[in-house]
Design brief:
heterodimer, A: alpha/beta, nine-stranded mixed sheet, three-stranded mixed sheet, about 35% helix, disordered N terminus, B: mainly alpha, globular
C-alpha cells in the first residue's frame, strides 16, 4: 500500500475526475473552471491539513467482561481509600491463601501490582509494562446501565441515543478504502451517517487473505491486456451507468463508492499474503508465549506455592481445582491466547497500511491451561464461577501478554508516525461485581471501565470517574470494586454518552451523543479534564 | 439477548416492527442489507407477497409449499420453459410475464417455516441487495448455458469461488428480526435448531450489502467470467440478441439498451449510459477488437456497474 499521502492524492484525483466529468452536464465552461479551482484548492487544503483530519480508531473489546481490577481498572489511583472484598485482588497474600488489593506508584498513579513488572518485547528482552501509562486515559465508574452482555456490548457499539456507531466516528469521515473492519465481536454495529458499511471477517485462517482476497486480481492474459487498453472508456461507461442507477436509487451511491474503493484496492496488486500474515501472527504469538511462560517470575503471583484446598475460591470456570494442586501448574509452555495474536496482527496491518481508519476487535482468555489433568482448559472471561485464587493467576499472565501485544502495536504505530493520530479504546461490556466470599463475580454494569491509549494524550496518565468506596450493586458485592459514583461537574456518574463524546473529541469528530459532556477537551494541543480527577465517594 | 432459545413472540414482533420502521426510514435493515425497491411496482414486499399468492394458487399443488418447494430459485425463463413444454402446466400459459416474475421473486425469497406468524414481514427483508444466492442465480442465469459444458462449469466455478463461498462479503443467511445472522445451512430449516460457533455466525452476519469486499469480488467475478468466450455468447443468446435471424448482433445503441434491459431486469437506464457504453464498444472496435470483444467489454461495464447489484 502507498503511504497516507499517495492514498489521499489518488482519491482526490479520482474524486476530481468524477466531478469534472459530471459537471459538463449542468455548468458552463467558466463555471467548470471556477469549480475546478475551488475544488482543487479545497482538496489541497485538506491534504495539507492532514494533521487535523479525523484520527484512526482501534476499539478492543474484551468480550465476556473479565475482572479488570487487577489490571486496568485503577481502584485507588490518587488515594488509598479502599474497602476490601475477598474477590478483589492484585496479588496473593503472604500465606498464599487469599488475594490482596495491592498497588505500586507509577507515573503519579497507584496502579495494580502487576504494573511493576516487565513484559517481553519483540527482538528479545523486556520492557516496563508501565510504558503504557505514558499516553493513557482511564475512565472508570461508567454506568453502563445494561446488565446483559449483548445489550452492554451493543451499547458500546452504538451508545443509547447515538446518531452514529463508535466505529463509524472514525470510518465515516475517512478516505481509506475500507470504512471499517471488525473481527470477533458478536454485537458489532456500524451505524453510519454517510451510508458506509463495515466488513467483518472471521477469526480463522489468514485474516489478511480473507480481507484482501477480493482485491487480488487474476492475470487473465489477453483479456487483461485488452481491458487495460480500454480502461478510460470502461470507466466512462461504468460511471454513466452508475449515475443512471443513482437517478433511480439514490442509495446506489454507496455501491459506487464501494466500487471506487474496490478498484483502488484492486490496483494495489496485493500479492500472496501468506508470508506477511505468518510473520505478523508469529510475532504476536511469540510475545504471548513469552508472556505466559511458566518460567517467568512475578513476585506475589508465582514466587511461592499456591495450593488449592478444593474450596470454591480455587474453582476455574466451574471446575474445582483438585485439593493439593499448586495453582502455578495451570500455566504450561503450551498456554496460549491465539485470538489476541490473530486480531492484533490483523489490526496492525490494516492500520499501518491505511486500509481502514476504524478497526474493532475482540479478545479472549487464555487457552491450554492445565486444570485437573485437562491440558486444554480454557479460561472464561465471564467469571461467574471462577474463584478469586484461580482468577488472579490466569488474569495476571493474560494481562502481561495483552500489555506486551499492545505495546508492540503502539511501537508499530509510532514507527509509522501514526500513534498521535490513533485512538485505542480498550474495554469490556461492564465491570464485575465481586462476590464477598471470593467465589465468582457478577455483571458490574454500575461500574464499567474504558482505557484509552493515544499519542494525542500528552497529559498522561489520567484517571477520571468516581467510584463508591463501598456500595452494593446486587447482593453480596460490597467493598471497593468500581461502582460508579457521581462526579461533581456532571451531578451523576459517568455514562456511555460521556464516554462516546470523549472518544469523538479525541477523534476530532462531532459527538454521536451531543448532549453528553466529554470528560476531556483539547486546549492548545493538550487534552485536559473537564471534570475532577478520580476519587472515591463514601 | 442471544440465548439461542425461541424469542418471546411479543418481543419478536416488537423487534420486527422496530426494524421495519428502521427500514422505512433508513432503507437498511439490521444486517446492513439495502432493501430492494423494484421500480414500477409498489414495493419488493408487495411483489413477493403477490408472488407467494400466485404460487399457492397455481404451483403449490404439485411442487409443495413455497418454503420447501422443489422449484426454489427457478428463474422466469425456466418457469416459462416448463409451462410451454410440460403438458400438465399448459393451463398456466395465462400467467403474464409480470406474474411469472413475481413467482420467480417469491421462489428466491427465503420464507420462514410454516406457522410463523411473521412470514410476511420476513419476505420484505429478503428482497435485498448483496445476497450471494441472488447474485449467484442472477449471474448464472445470464452467463451459464443449459448445455453445462466445460466452459459453463468454469463459469460456475468462478461464481462459486467468488460469490457463493463468501458470506462475509455477500451475506446470505440473515433474517432481520433475528439480530444474529444464521448460517446458510439453516436457511430453510427452523432457525431455532441452529446453534453455530461464533466465527460462523460472524461470518454470516458480516453481510452489509454495499461493501467494498463484495464489490471487489463482483469485479473479479465479472472479469473472470467474461474472460471465457462462452459467457459472451450465452449472454447474447439469453438476452435474445443472438438469434437465428441475427447471428452477429452489433453493439449499437438499440442492442446495448436491450442487453441492459436483460441484465438489469428492465430497470430503467438513461440515454447517456447507453451512449457511453456504445462509445466503449466503438473504442474497442477502433483498437481492432472483434465484435465478440466489443460485447465482452460492454458486458464487463454492465456487470460491474451498480445496477448489477440492485437485483
Amino acid at each position: 500500500m502507498g503511504n497516507d499521502h499517495s492514498s489521499f492524492s489518488r482519491r482526490n484525483f479520482l474524486s476530481l475526475l468524477g466531478k469534472a466529468t459530471a459537471l459538463p452536464l449542468m455548468q458552463s465552461p467558466v463555471q467548470i473552471l471556477i469549480e475546478s479551482i475551488v475544488m482543487g484548492a479545497t482538496q489541497r487544503a485538506y491534504a495539507e491539513a492532514q494533521g487535523l483530519s479525523p484520527r484512526r480508531l482501534l476499539h478492543i473489546l474484551h468480550e465476556g467482561a473479565p475482572p479488570r481490577w487487577g489490571y486496568d481498572l485503577f481502584l485507588t489511583p490518587y488515594a488509598t481509600d479502599f474497602k476490601a472484598n475477598k474477590t478483589v485482588g492484585t496479588r496473593f497474600s503472604a500465606d498464599g491463601k487469599s488475594v490482596l488489593y495491592s498497588t505500586v506508584a507509577r507515573k503519579g498513579l497507584n496502579v495494580p501490582h502487576m504494573w511493576q513488572f516487565n513484559v517481553p518485547k519483540v527482538g528479545g528482552g523486556t520492557r516496563p509494562m508501565d510504558d503504557l501509562l505514558s499516553n493513557m486515559l482511564c475512565l472508570r465508574g461508567i454506568n453502563v446501565a445494561n446488565p446483559a452482555h449483548g445489550g452492554a456490548q451493543a451499547a458500546q457499539s452504538v451508545p443509547n441515543g447515538a446518531t452514529q456507531s463508535i466505529s463509524a466516528l472514525a470510518g465515516d469521515p475517512s478516505t481509506s478504502p475500507i470504512p471499517a473492519v471488525s473481527a470477533g465481536l458478536s454485537e458489532f454495529r456500524y451505524l453510519s451517517k454517510s451510508a458506509k458499511s463495515a466488513v467483518s471477517i472471521a477469526s480463522s485462517g489468514n485474516m489478511l487473505s480473507t480481507l484482501l482476497n477480493p482485491f487480488i486480481r487474476k492475470d487473465l492474459g489477453g483479456f487483461t491486456i485488452k481491458r487495460e487498453s480500454l480502461a478510460s472508456a470502461l470507466d466512462a461507461s461504468i460511471k454513466a451507468l452508475n449515475i443512471s442507477a443513482e437517478s433511480q436509487h439514490p442509495q446506489a451511491n454507496v455501491l459506487t463508492s464501494s466500487l471506487n474503493s474496490a478498484k483502488e484496492l484492486l490496483s494495489e496488486g496485493f500479492g500472496n499474503l501468506d508470508q506477511t500474515w505468518s510473520d505478523l501472527l508469529n510475532k504476536y504469538l511469540l510475545l504471548i508465549q513469552q508472556s505466559v511462560s511458566p518460567t517467568n517470575q512475578y513476585v506475589g503471583i508465582n514466587d511461592k506455592e499456591i495450593l488449592s484446598d478444593g474450596s470454591p475460591i480455587y474453582t476455574m470456570n466451574t471446575m474445582p481445582i483438585d485439593a493439593g494442586t499448586d495453582l502455578r501448574t495451570m500455566i504450561t509452555n503450551k498456554t496460549a491466547c491465539d485470538l489476541v495474536a490473530q486480531h492484533f496482527a490483523m489490526a496492525e496491518y490494516v492500520l499501518t497500511n491505511n486500509l481502514s481508519y476504524s478497526v474493532s476487535i475482540g479478545t479472549a482468555g487464555l487457552t491450554n491451561l492445565l486444570i485437573n489433568a485437562d491440558a486444554k482448559f480454557k479460561q472464561k472471561y465471564d467469571e461467574h464461577q471462577t474463584g478469586a485464587m484461580a482468577s488472579l493467576i490466569s488474569n495476571a499472565y493474560l494481562n502481561v501478554a495483552y500489555s506486551a501485544c499492545l505495546l508492540e502495536l503502539i511501537d508499530q504505530l509510532k514507527a509509522h508516525g501514526m500513534f498521535e493520530e490513533t485512538v485505542i479504546v480498550s474495554g469490556s461490556e461492564f465491570g464485575r461485581s465481586p462476590h464477598g466470599d471470593g467465589f465468582g463475580s457478577g455483571h458490574g454494569y454500575s461500574g464499567g471501565c474504558s482505557v484509552i491509549y493515544s499519542g494525542a494524550l500528552q497529559a498522561s496518565p489520567m484517571v477520571l470517574g468516581n467510584i463508591y468506596t463501598d456500595r452494593i450493586q446486587d447482593v453480596d458485592d460490597a467493598g471497593t470494586w468500581g461502582f460508579g459514583a457521581p462526579v461533581a461537574e456532571l451531578g451523576k456518574a459517568l455514562s456511555l454518552g460521556n464516554w462516546a463524546s470523549t472518544i469523538a473529541g479525541l477523534l476530532r469528530v462531532p459527538s454521536p451523543n451531543s448532549a453528553s459532556t466529554p470528560v476531556i477537551v483539547e486546549t492548545q494541543g493538550v487534552f485536559k479534564p473537564t471534570i475532577e480527577l478520580a476519587k472515591q465517594i463514601t | 439477548m442471544k440465548s439461542g432459545g425461541k424469542m418471546n413472540p411479543v418481543t419478536r414482533t416488537l423487534l420486527t416492527v422496530i426494524t421495519c420502521a428502521g427500514i422505512l426510514v433508513f432503507g437498511f435493515n439490521n444486517c446492513g442489507f439495502e432493501v430492494l425497491k423494484n421500480p414500477g411496482l409498489e414495493s419488493g414486499l408487495d411483489q413477493v407477497i403477490e408472488g407467494q399468492k400466485l404460487y399457492a394458487s397455481n404451483c403449490a399443488a404439485c411442487h409443495g409449499p413455497i418454503e420447501s418447494s422443489s422449484k426454489r430459485d427457478k428463474t422466469s425463463a425456466q418457469i416459462n420453459y416448463a409451462i410451454s413444454s410440460q403438458p400438465a402446466m399448459k393451463f398456466l400459459s395465462v400467467l403474464t410475464p409480470t406474474e411469472i416474475g413475481m413467482i420467480e421473486l417469491a421462489l428466491r425469497t427465503p420464507v420462514d417455516p410454516p406457522g410463523d406468524s411473521e412470514s410476511k414481514m420476513v419476505t420484505e427483508a429478503e428482497a435485498r441487495v448483496g445476497n450471494r444466492y441472488l447474485i449467484y442465480s442472477n449471474l448464472k442465469e445470464i452467463f451459464v448455458s443449459s448445455a453445462l459444458d466445460g466452459d459453463d462449469q468454469s463459469i460456475l466455478t468462478v461464481l462459486n469461488d467468488n460469490v457463493m463461498t463468501h458470506p462475509e462479503a455477500f451475506g446470505g443467511g440473515c433474517t432481520r428480526y433475528d439480530l444474529d445472522c444464521i448460517p446458510d445451512s439453516c436457511r430453510y430449516s427452523n432457525r431455532d435448531s441452529c446453534t453455530s460457533d461464533r466465527d460462523l455466525k460472524s461470518a454470516a452476519a458480516a453481510a452489509p450489502a454495499p461493501n467494498v469486499m463484495a464489490k471487489g469480488y463482483m469485479v473479479r467475478t465479472c472479469e473472470e467470467i467474461l474472460a471465457i468466450d462462452k459467457s459472451v455468447d450465452t449472454a447474447l443468446r439469453r438476452a435474445e440478441l443472438r438469434t437465428e435471424s441475427q447471428p452477429n448482433p452489433l453493439p449499437n445503441a438499440t442492442n446495448v439498451q436491450l442487453l441492459m434491459n436483460f441484465f438489469f431486469r428492465n430497470r430503467p437506464t438513461n440515454s447517456d449510459s447507453v451512449s457511453q457504453t456504445v462509445l466503449l464498444a466503438n473504442a474497442a472496435a477502433a483498437q481492432g477488437l472483434s465484435v465478440t470483444d466489443q460485447w465482452r467489454f460492454v458486458m464487463l461495464s454492465v456487470c460491474e456497474s451498480d445496477s448489477a447489484d440492485l437485483l
